[in-house]
Amino acid sequence: MESQIAGDGTHGLPRRRGPDLTGLATFTLDSQGRVASWSATATRLFGHATHAVVGHDVCDVLMTGPGQRQLVHEALAEAAAGRTWTATLAMAFAGGGGPVAIRCEPLAGPGTGALVIAQSASTHIGPSWLGEAADRIGTTLDLTRTAREVADVAVPAFADAAAIFVSERLLAADEFAAHQPGHGAVVRRLAARLAGQAVAVTESVLRPGEVIVFGGDSPSFRAMETTSPVQFDHLDDETAERIARRPGGRRLTSGYASFLAVPLVARGVVLGCMTFGRGAGSPAFGPDDIAAAGELASRAAVSIDNARLYDRERRIASALQLGLLPSEPRVPARMEVVQRYLPVGANVIGGDWHDIVALSGGKAALIVGDAMGHGPEAAAVMVQLRTAAHIMAELELPPGEMLRKLDRMAAGMPAAPFATCVAAVIDPSGSSCVIAKAGHPPPVLILADGATQVIDVPAGLPLGLGTGSFEVTQIDLPPGATLALYTDGLVESRTRPLDGGLAALRDALRSALTRPGGTLDGSCEMVTQTLRQRGEDDITLLLARVRQ
């Protein structure tokens, strides 16, 4: 690694080559890394006669650093496995030494060695490189993948090593704080690449996601603080010591002789920085390189910031959705209650809600509601109604009174949303149930023998009109009977009217609940999957029975 220039994948990018490329040269190696054949083109490129090379270890003839011996072993191992290995290495040739792009391909038989195709490579960055780099960056809004794209663009086309860092406060709390001179910065490493090293090897030393501190005198912090590139020729002590603590870390980083830290700035905010490194066999970063790095960082910063903002919105949405989902219910000992909720489309939560509230005396309140619409707007209405209904149930308000209060509450909300609801209080000791509903589909009672009854409960008007009057109905719960509460997504669609949906629901409930050895939870799953429509509406089904 110490003297390598670049490697591990072409990605369609120039490897610091300009239009003045020399001709190709070829030679072969045996399985031990000795030169087996040497072409005239190899003599012209490297300046060594055939008799002076054949039979000698290629590392003794062409390589300029001890770290490359391991790379040759890796290249031969890849060839022995039937794979191609590419890299740009510092090599010795006529007139001195310099970067050479090589391609190592397997020969015909396994374990017979490798064909090496070599070409002298200029360290000049071609004018099309930034355009090609821009096409490769920002193909996704995933933050980690975007950072990896940036690193892959930089290595090996521009540098032998690259790492991308973003302020931890921006990632964790979306909080921007001005950097204070000398105080350093807490950053998270999003991605890193070392030329010629497998990703797993690189990430074992430069771990993605690792939170570190740039000291106040570190070049990377100075780049962030001044928003200007900082060039340096060795790692600061703190960084070097941190890397050396990882197995192989000192070896992997000891051969770099030129470094460049460039700030990542987007929309006027310093996001973090990119740090580049070049090995001893590469030219040090010059003015043209600094300008090119600045252009790359500017484009990368916008893509990284877009991914960061998207990740923030995704995390906010995920947190809200998890907060909207009902918690694990407390079911009284003498009751068994199960439920299923299937949101429409890609939504995690929508307008449907259900709740189970344990009451005194072993009773339980069961509530199922449906706010009109789907997605976040319906969910916002739903969570307010569900929270209010839960509090009212805990106060042990009768179902009719609960619906009246919910109706007035909905009428006072912005845009006066509409919702339907059914509320029931089950008393296991009396094997009875009191039910009221507001514009909601009727409950269904399934008896132990499979017979089903649609409970005749006065319909009531939907919540939100502010003038509702909700009558209650009391029913008996015979031994083994199951009460089904649900939303209209289970029984209605554009192609199936309510009457047909109710008939299908009763058939599905009868079939599921009379299966030999069936459980209430399994029956709930079977019914929802049987009646699931084409994603037209949220589906909620709640089944409850008194334990015998």
Q: CATH H-level name of the largest domain... which superfamily?
A: PPM-type phosphatase domain
With helices defined by DSSP (H or I, 4 residues minimum), what is the helix count? 15
Strand content: 25-35%
User: What is the CATH third-level topology name of the largest domain?
Assistant: Phosphatase 2c, domain 1
Q: How far apart are the termini? A: 74 Å
**The level-1 CATH class of the largest domain:** Alpha Beta
Domain tally: 3
The beta-strand count equals: 22
By helix and strand content, what is the structural category? alpha+beta
Low-confidence parts, pLDDT < 50 over ≥5 residues? Answer: 1-22
Q: Averaged pLDDT, please?
A: 82
**Could you say what the CATH architecture of the largest domain is?**
4-Layer Sandwich
Strand order of the largest sheet: 1-4-5-6-2-3
For the report, how would you describe the main beta sheet? 6 strands, antiparallel
Helix content percent band = 25-40%
C-alpha-based Rg, rounded: 35 Å
Name the shape in a single word.
Answer: elongated
